[in-house]
Amino acid sequence: MDFLQPSTWDEALAAKAAHPDAVPIAGGTDVMVELNFDRRRPPALLDLSRVAPLTEWGTDGDMLRVGAGVPYRRIIEELGGRLPGLAMAARTVGSPQIRNRGTVGGNLGSASPAGDAHPPLLAARAEVELASVRGVRRVPVESFFTGPKRSVLAPDELIAAFRVRTARAGEQFAKIGTRNAMVIAVCSFALALDPVRRTVGTGIGSAAPTPVRATAAEAFLVAELDWDSRGAVPPGVAAEFGRLVAAAAAPIDDVRGTAAYRRHALSVLARRALVWAWEGLR
Amino acid sequence: MTTVDQAVRDGIGTSPRRPDGTLKVKGEFAFSSDLWHEDMLWGATLRSPYPRARIRGIDLTAALALPGVYAVLTHEDVRGAKRYGLEIADQPVLAMGEVRYQGEPVAIVAADHPETARRAAGHIAVDYFELPPVTDPEEGELLRRVPVRTGDPHATADVVVTGEYEVGMQDQAFLGPESGLAVPAEDGGVELYVATQWLHVDQKQVAACLGLPAEKVRLSLSGVGGAFGAREDLSMQVHASMLALHTRRPVKMVYGREESFYGHVHRHPAKLRYEHGATSGGDLVYVRARIVLDGGAYASSSTAVAANAATLGIGPYEVPNVDMEASVYYTNNPPCGAMRGFGAVQACFAYESQMDKLAAALGMSPVEVRIRNAMTAGSRMPTGQVVEGPAPVASLLARVRARPAPPPSTLDLRELPGGVANTTHGEGVVRGVGYAIGIKNVAFSEGFDDYSTARVRLELIGGEPAVLVHTAAAEVGQGVVTVQAQIARTELGVERVTVATADTTVGSAGSSSASRQTYMTGGAVRAACQAVRATLLARVGGAGIVGGKVVNAAGLVVADLAEAIGDEPIEETVEWRHRPTYPIDPETGQGNAHVQYAFAAHRATVDVDVELGLVKVVEIATAQDVGKAVNPLAVEGQIQGVRHRGWGWH
């Protein structure tokens, strides 16, 4: 197995163009597990850990651009105030050691339906910045995933960053696990309420072949929320929102949980997250 | 009666630091997976991908052709007994014509690099013919049925509760995977360094399979990373020895985490059907129970597991009429065997659930109905055995009940069901409190000749009295090394005690299991120390050892301890046995099967998110009668550890 170790972004893109079979590796928290268990033996690894710009983040107006190599720990510590939903999700990833190593870019690259970062990125309408020697393109997270562990990423492309509007409040993330920490999601839900634009964003994890939005639930809530006076959410509205979120999922029975439990849990999480997010704005 | 020196430092009743503690915390302890030898080869195991299949052929050509491969062996290379087992020799060293569970070893490889060995195993071509596996124990072949019957089988009662319970498989998941090093010896034998629970039972089985006399198979205990029953059966011991003898090179084998789950037995899954009858006042009248245990593909310790389930299966209660049957069956599921509290804990889940049901049916408190029926010293077990030791069942329950209730949740996410995964801020959360008590036998039962051997030597080193304790007791993390030294210090009044590495150059200590090692090897060390002391005292006409002096019956110093020892070291070896036990009647289960019993009462306080089914264990209060705590800190460690085992078993 070849081990490619570019030190600049241009070198990384050139290496990926020359070795489209090379598997990019950042924190290694997914890739190394697969290698160690012999589930995958790629012809080459492309180590991105020396490419400094990948670990940087910056602002562009009220937009944030976060390098694909920023680990979860820094998302929590440095961006918790600007991206509260993503920070909540990052806090549920693995152990402290994993959060030191694992990156949002790696999560996107693996494109698991259970990836913890995906629901908050969906809810916040984030964009993924993809780059290759051919140029740069931006893809809405919603269009990024094409199937379980599949994405629109071309063989010569690398994930450079994600771009997202800062939120400060109105975001929530909740995840069900088979225990209370260090677990892969049985299902998860993210919500982003934007009181300025009066938009509602949702993201469902681990309950469909890809992370998905609950678009009908979003539209329902945009119409029903009392945006002007910010009055409390009527219980009937919260319940219907929960029902619509559950209906948007396409879960399966597997070792972590049944489809029926996932739908039920999503309706509960959506209902609760709505109340918390709305209270955060009042 | 001679006196022992209670003043000696780090003796019985204190909690001296364990010798391996700091090393383990700092990551410097050498586990069996850290063993190394000049010129050693690495072993790997090819395992069956199928739970049940016929093997029509095995082609080793491609594996042997890989550079760096020194040996590829199958069952044809097993020189001695082709099968082994703790109670019944039914498990093939390497599969012979069929495989009976997924993960069963089929062939073994030695190569100059672990990766090469692993790859070579992948190059072995096995022609399997898949067969439908038996996965339901009630469709499997019966391995043992243990009935226990007493009183009137047709007894009736005012209040009757029934229940059907199921408990799943559990894995010991010790942190240090199966590993060891086999070194071929000049006499044609083998030196085996392994992490195990019982060196001598390994020695007996390994020697039989290698076709060697026991004295040519010499075992030394290597650093054990946890055991919990999973190291009672053989794993890599015969395989590494075969490869070492074949290649005439040292061979090391280390299972990975995933392979480890195939490498040892698990806790038996069980289905338990119970019927409890009681008077309207809450006195138990009868218990009828049928327990079905899934033994998996091979016997391991299944027969003892079934006996424990049957003989302890109604719990620590007085019940005049019992109709109990525990049966264990062969299936094509992973083999099940020893895990902490085997047999007793499966039944405990069922009988304690029944006691809660009964309390609800009677309108009594769950603690009250338990206390009302609690056995005491002098009670008669359903096997007819009279409980002779202390049985403070009611008192243990009263103690956990009397503990102050834990404070209400602060609603910090880390204290809530779901934790920081943020599933509730208190919504749907209710607090439940549950009680349970369990009974377990201590040491081996049913007439087994259970003993331990200790060799104790008292000598002068650099002019100072020093003690060397040598036993084959496996230190598996429970602290038996520390305890042996404590006992020797107190018995001989000498602080300087060394505990030699456990190996087979001393007699068997029995297994580090069944809660027996402090009692049994501790007892053997004590007896050997007493023998040493008797010789010493006789030498100078003393009656006791106090503060480094030998004193007479009047308490007057007759000699310095060092003087008494002089240049004549005293060494004694003692085999120590607990009182005998007896087989039980195969039809009625009557008999004095057990040595003694231990009891543990718990009160669990648990916050439950009733909408999501998530839980947060707030507190578990535990009360156990531990007898004399030889090392109080180690006792606490045992209780905490086993409580987490139970906690994880849901």
Automatic annotation (TrEMBL), chain A:
SMART domains linked: CO_deh_flav_C
A Pfam family: CO_deh_flav_C
Molecular function GO labels: FAD binding; oxidoreductase activity
UniProt keyword annotation of Oxidoreductase present: yes
Keyword Cytoplasm found: no
UniProt entry keywords in alphabetical sequence: FAD, Flavoprotein, Oxidoreductase
Organism, as annotated: Phytohabitans flavus
FAD-binding PCMH-type domain boundaries: 1-169
InterPro entries: CO_DH_flav_C, CO_DH_flav_C_dom_sf, Diverse_Substr_Oxidored, FAD-bd_PCMH, FAD-bd_PCMH-like_sf, FAD-bd_PCMH_sub1, FAD-bd_PCMH_sub2, Mopterin_DH_FAD-bd
Domain of life where this protein originates: Bacteria
Protein name: Carbon-monoxide dehydrogenase medium subunit
UniProtKB/TrEMBL annotation, chain B:
Pfam families noted in UniProt: Ald_Xan_dh_C, MoCoBD_1, MoCoBD_2
Example of a GO MF term: iron ion binding
Residues of the Aldehyde oxidase/xanthine dehydrogenase a/b hammerhead domain: 26-132
Highest taxon listed in the record's lineage: Bacteria
Gene3D superfamilies from the UniProt entry: Aldehyde oxidase/xanthine dehydrogenase, a/b hammerhead, Aldehyde oxidase/xanthine dehydrogenase, molybdopterin binding domain
Disordered as annotated region, ranges: 1-20
Matches recorded under InterPro entries: Ald_Oxase/Xan_DH_a/b, Ald_Oxase/Xan_DH_a/b_sf, Ald_Oxase/xanthine_DH-like, AldOxase/xan_DH_MoCoBD1, AldOxase/xan_DH_MoCoBD2, AldOxase/xan_DH_Mopterin-bd_sf
Protein name as annotated: Carbon-monoxide dehydrogenase large subunit
Species name: Phytohabitans flavus
